[in-house]
Amino acid sequence: MTNTLSKLELAGYIHVRPDWDDARRKIVGISPAGRRARDEALAGIAPVITEIVDEIGEERVRAALPILRELRIRLNRPE
Predict the structure, then answer these.
(1) How far apart are CA 67 and CA 31, in angstroms?
(2) Which pLDDT band holds residue 33 (cuts at 50, 70, 90)?
(3) What is the pLDDT of residues 16-26, one digit of tens each?
(4) Whole-prediction pTM
(5) Rounded distance, CA 23 to CA 79, Å?
(6) Cα(61)–Cα(69) distance, rounded to whole angstroms?
(7) Distance CA 3, CA 10 (A)
(8) Annotated domain spans of the chain
(9) Which secondary structure element, helix H or strand E, spans residue 27, and what is its range?
(10) Given phi > 0 = left and psi -120 to 50 = alpha, else beta, which region is 31?
(11) Which among 40, 31, 38, 32 has a CA at the least distance from the CA of 9?
C-alpha cells in the first residue's frame, strides 16, 4: 500500500499527511489532478462497460451485482 500511495503522491494525484491522533495511520486526500485522472479513467471505461452490459444483458448483470458486492466486502475485511 505504501508503494502505491507513494507513486500516486509523486504523480500529484493524492496528498498524504500524518494522522496526529494515531501515528500508525496516514490521512489520504485526492487532489484536483487525481479527480481529473479518475474522471478521465471512468469516461474511458464507460463505453467498454456499456458494451459488455449490452452483450451479457442488463438483467444478468444486475443479478451478479449482489455477489460482486459480497466479494468486495469480504476482500476488504481486515485480517
Answers:
(1) 32
(2) very high
(3) 999 999 988 99
(4) 0.65
(5) 20
(6) 12
(7) 11
(8) 45-79
(9) strand 26-30
(10) beta
(11) 31
